C-alpha cells in the first residue's frame, strides 16, 4: 500500500502568526511527517520550525528528510522523489509560498503521483492568486492566470494588449505576476499599454501586515502615487471595459 502525498501550503511571506493563515489540522499533519519535497530545503526547514513551535515535530529536524524539486530538477528524477511514498511512507509537497503546484514546480510530481495511484490530498492554505481575485472587485466568475509576462519590453507590451483584448471580449479577469524588483516597470507598462478605462489591480504582500490592494482604471493609475511594492511579491490583475 502506498503512502499519501499531502500538498502543504506555506505562508506568503515572513510571519510568526502561523495560525492566521494555516488551520490547526494542516499544522498537525505537517508535524507528523518526516519526508518532504520542497523547492528549497533551507526555506522548508524554516517553515517546519514555525510549525514545530505550535506542534512538536515527529522527529528532530536533522532526521527529517527534505528532497528538492525546482526548475532544475530533471524529469527522470521525479520517480526517485516518489520512492518513499511507493514504499508506503506518507510525504508532503511544500510550496515556497502559498499552495503547491500552482505557479510552482510541483505540478509534475502531483501528476506522476496520480499515475502511480498514490493518494493526493490537498490541504487548506493561502493562495495569493485567489486572494487577489477576491479583493480586486474584478470578475471572479471568469479569470485566468498567465504566469510571468515576457521580460522584453516590446513583447511585454504586445502581451498586455492581447490579454486586455481577451479580457474585454470574454469579460474575463487576467492575472499575472512579475519578479518583485520589476514591479514598477510592469505597472508602468500596464498604464501605458491599456485603454484608459481598463481596470487594473495591484495586490502586494497578501495576508501579511504590509498588505496593500488597490484597483483603479489605467487612467487613474497614471496620476496616482506608486504603491510601496518594490521587491515585494505582487499579483497584477486587469479587466477590460
Summarize the entry for a quick read:
With 241 residues, this protein is an alpha/beta fold. The protein is built from eight helices and ten strands. It folds into two domains: 118 residues, Cobalt-precorrin-4 Transmethylase, domain 1; 112 residues, 2-Layer Sandwich (Methyltransferase, Cobalt-precorrin-4 Transmethylase, Domain 2).
Describe the protein in words:
With 241 residues, the protein is of the alpha/beta class. It has two domains: 5-122, Cobalt-precorrin-4 Transmethylase, domain 1; 128-239, Methyltransferase, Cobalt-precorrin-4 Transmethylase, Domain 2 (2-Layer Sandwich). Helix content is 35%, strand content 20%. It has eight helices and ten strands. It has helices at 24-32, 41-54, 78-86, 107-115, 128-136, 153-170, 183-193, 218-223, and strands at 5-8, 35-38, 65-68, 91-94, 120-122, 143-148, 173-177, 199-204, 212-217, 234-239. It has a five-stranded parallel β-sheet with strand order 3-2-4-1-5, sandwiched between helices. A five-stranded mixed β-sheet has the order 6-7-10-8-9, with helices on both faces. Helix 2 links the parallel strand 2 and strand 3. Helix 1 packs across helix 2 (41-54). The mean pLDDT is 95.
Amino acid at each position: 500500500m502506498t503512502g499519501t502525498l499531502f500538498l502543504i501550503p506555506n505562508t506568503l511571506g515572513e510571519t510568526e502568526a502561523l495560525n492566521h493563515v494555516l488551520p490547526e489540522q494542516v499544522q498537525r499533519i505537517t508535524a507528523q511527517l518526516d519526508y518532504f519535497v520542497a523547492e528549497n530545503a533551507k526555506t522548508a526547514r524554516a517553515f517546519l520550525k514555525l510549525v514545530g513551535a505550535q506542534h512538536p515535530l515527529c522527529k528532530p529536524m536533522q532526521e527529517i528528510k527534505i528532497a528538492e524539486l525546482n526548475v532544475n530538477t530533471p524529469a527522470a528524477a521525479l520517480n526517485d522523489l516518489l520512492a518513499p511514498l511507493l514504499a508506503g511512507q506518507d510525504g508532503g509537497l511544500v510550496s515556497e509560498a502559498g499552495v503547491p503546484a500552482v505557479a510552482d514546480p510541483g505540478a509534475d510530481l502531483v501528476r506522476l503521483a496520480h499515475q502511480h495511484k498514490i493518494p493526493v490530498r490537498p490541504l487548506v492554505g493561502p493562495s495569493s492568486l485567489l486572494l487577489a481575485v477576491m479583493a480586486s472587485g474584478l470578475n471572479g466568475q471568469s479569470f485566468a492566470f498567465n504566469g510571468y509576462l515576457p521580460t522584453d519590453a516590446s513583447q511585454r507590451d504586445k502581451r498586455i494588449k492581447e490579454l486586455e483584448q481577451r479580457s474585454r471580449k470574454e469579460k474575463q479577469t487576467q492575472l499575472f505576476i512579475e519578479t518583485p524588483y520589476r514591479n514598477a516597470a510592469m505597472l508602468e507598462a500596464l498604464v501605458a499599454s491599456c485603454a484608459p478605462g481598463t481596470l487594473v489591480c495591484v495586490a502586494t504582500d497578501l495576508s501579511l501586515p504590509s498588505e496593500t490592494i488597490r484597483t483603479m482604471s489605467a487612467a487613474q493609475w497614471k496620476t496616482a502615487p506608486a504603491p510601496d511594492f518594490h521587491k515585494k511579491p505582487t499579483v497584477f490583475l486587469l479587466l477590460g471595459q
